[in-house]
Design brief:
Organism: Xylaria arbuscula
Radius of gyration: 27 Å
Number of helices: 8
Largest sheet: 8 strands, antiparallel
Distance between the termini: 61 Å
Low-confidence stretches: 1-64, 228-256
Shape: elongated
Structural class: alpha+beta
InterPro entries: Kinase-like_dom_sf, Prot_kinase_dom
Number of strands: 29
Protein name: Protein kinase domain-containing protein
GO molecular function: ATP binding; protein serine/threonine kinase activity
């Protein structure tokens, strides 16, 4: 197991508490009467470096405090009347010229307050209030001494800090006296506590007071039964006045061990209050609950006249690395989907809330292609050749739209294509999408990966979307089995460094076998093209989608032009 260093001691990743070992003498004072930090409060390097935002700080964003440290207990923090568009999660006091930016939009943080001290003679202290908002997952700190990202964990009363400066960052806990040593691109957890950040032992550059999450208020329809897990955490309900048709339930801070939106049930209405843009979400019914995401239909008080789908990105564990991965996935999907604009074959983006790793899209009355099967034993497309043509036309148009904006969807598969015989096909789920020239957060399902992945793992281009569409169409025309029913493999294993030969070979063999299945299906389709009548041209176009060489694969714009030459009616 990994071993991490704490000033004066070592501890492993399974320890229940940080050690009581005190660091060497240093100027920053220690707070008293505090509990130990959480067992997750340790540092470790992350696989990929986080790019530090480069901006022109501007006068508004720069602040400078005196070199004297402040005792949080002597500051009148209750005087801060926060009415920002985020949920308050921490206070910062800077002791050097510093630029604070909201992340990922990189706008300047402007929630600065002057706070009086314990006596009338002390000068007011400048404090920055920070927290997650609808589009803000964290804060980027830039200075000559400290550069880091602070992410607000939606699932816990903690901040996850990533050191983006090529020198060690020290975070000292006032409760335990222990100091976290965070290397370049390393991560650590700052629990609800008072912290001192520095890159040396002769000065404290930033003071940070981490706060707990704000309680949520839930109203509940009468007769709605909460799950037993939720009931164990819900605070005592207030008595309902005569004639009132709902129960009020306050979800206290720390009541739910993770994201509170994952614990509401049908009929619950969650009230999100910031003081500026409050809103209410009422859960209508669940849509899906998977390992890395959950979704449900809801009514949003600020999105009138529409049913929304609330999608929540989930970490796969309680580890800080998993929390960062979920946040980065949310960022990637938010940045892509919110920038698209309108297209008839793309699920409309309606909003987001980084406080819960949530995205809001319009509800489409259509089911994924995985549901359009004859039966579970015969997983063939059940809607016929004309509707398969409609799917091809709609998704080709959507991809042409995306590719014109230099965006790769990265997740073309049956589950991400919604279909209704009247509306047609609609492309959904942008969690794997990215801009050309950038790296995706992760790869999609193995059966939709193009042949070039056998040679080069980072061979990401718009042609990968076209190959995946070809796989979808071969299934829709019953020329290959449902991809998800074939043997699984891990794409990353093909290029896994220092991996056992049998692991690599197993992945290579299964991918080669599947590619042979796709090629055989395409060959069969070409042979049958003459018997398809006016739809015979579709065989050639699908064959162009699954060309082995990506340079010979048809692009989306050309495919749309070719499809426009036909006027077929189902």
């Amino acid at each position: 197991m990994p071993v991490y260093t704490v000033r004066g001691s070592e501890y492993d990743d399974d320890d229940d508490d940080l050690p009581d070992t005190l660091p060497p003498p240093s100027p920053p004072p220690q707070a008293e009467n505090a509990t130990d930090a959480e067992p997750n409060d340790k540092t470790s390097p992350v696989a990929d470096p986080v790019v530090d935002p480069v901006v022109d700080p501007g006068e508004v964003a720069i602040t400078r405090q005196s070199k004297l440290l402040y005792n949080w207990a002597e500051l009148n923090l209750e005087s801060i009347s926060h009415k920002g568009e985020f949920l308050l999660r921490a206070f910062l006091i800077t002791h050097l010229p510093c630029c604070l930016l909201s992340y990922p939009d990189r706008s300047h943080c402007d929630s600065w307050f002057s706070v009086d001290g314990a006596d009338d003679e002390s000068e007011p202290t400048r404090i920055c209030a920070i927290g997650p908002g609808e589009k803000q997952v964290g804060v980027a700190i830039q200075s000559s001494k400290v550069r880091c990202l602070m992410f607000f964990d939606p699932a816990d009363d903690r901040l996850i800090i990533i050191n983006t400066m090529p020198k060690t960052l020290y975070c000292k806990s006032a409760r335990t006296g222990a100091t976290l040593d965070i290397p370049f691109n390393g991560t650590a957890v700052m629990a609800e506590d008072e912290w001192e950040l520095s890159t040396g032992w002769n000065a404290c550059h930033i003071q940070c007071k981490v706060l707990g999450r704000k309680p949520l208020r839930i109203t509940q329809d009468p007769g709605t039964k909460r799950s037993s897990a939720a009931e164990n955490h819900v605070a005592k309900r207030t008595r309902r006045p005569v004639g009132e048709d709902f129960n009020r339930v306050t979800i206290p801070r720390g009541s739910f061990p993770n994201n509170p939106l994952l614990h509401i049930v049908r009929g619950d209405a969650v009230h999100v209050e910031t003081g500026v843009k409050d809103y209410t979400l009422k859960l209508l019914e669940p849509v899906a609950d998977m390992r890395l995401e959950s979704s449900f239909k809801a009514k949003h008080s600020r999105i009138s006249g529409k049913i929304v789908v609330v999608k929540i990105i989930k970490p796969n564990s309680r580890r800080k690395e998993s929390a960062v991965q979920a946040i980065e996935t949310w960022i990637a999907e938010f940045l892509v989907h919110s920038s698209l604009g309108s297209h008839h074959a793309i699920v409309p983006y309606l909003g987001s809330d980084a406080r819960f790793n949530a995205l809001f899209t319009e509800y489409i009355d259509a089911k994924p292609l995985t549901y359009h099967v004859k039966d579970q034993s015969n997983q063939e497309f059940n809607d016929g050749i004309y509707r398969a043509w409609r799917i091809l036309c709609d998704i080709a148009s959507a991809l042409s739209f995306l590719h014109s904006k230099k965006i790769i969807h990265g997740g073309i598969q049956l589950a991400n294509i919604l279909f209704h015989p009247v509306r047609g096909a609609v492309l959904a789920n942008f969690s794997l999408s990215f801009k050309e020239g950038e790296r995706p957060v992760s790869n999609g399902l193995p059966w939709y990966q193009p042949p070039q992945f056998l040679e080069q793992m980072d061979a990401h281009s718009t042609s990968m979307d076209m190959w995946a569409l070809g796989v979808v169409m071969l299934w829709a025309l019953s020329k290959i089995p449902m991809p998800e029913s074939a043997k699984h493999w891990v794409v990353e294993h093909i290029h896994l460094e220092k991996a056992a030969t049998d692991v690599v070979r197993k992945a290579e063999t299964r991918m080669e076998d599947w590619l042979a299945t796709v090629q055989a299906g395409s060959n069969t389709l070409q042979e049958e093209g003459e018997q398809m009548g006016e739809l015979g041209e579709m065989a050639g176009l699908i064959g162009a989608l699954v060309q082995q060489r990506e340079q010979e694969r048809i692009d989306a714009a050309t495919l749309v032009e070719e499809l426009a030459k036909f006027d077929l009616k189902s």
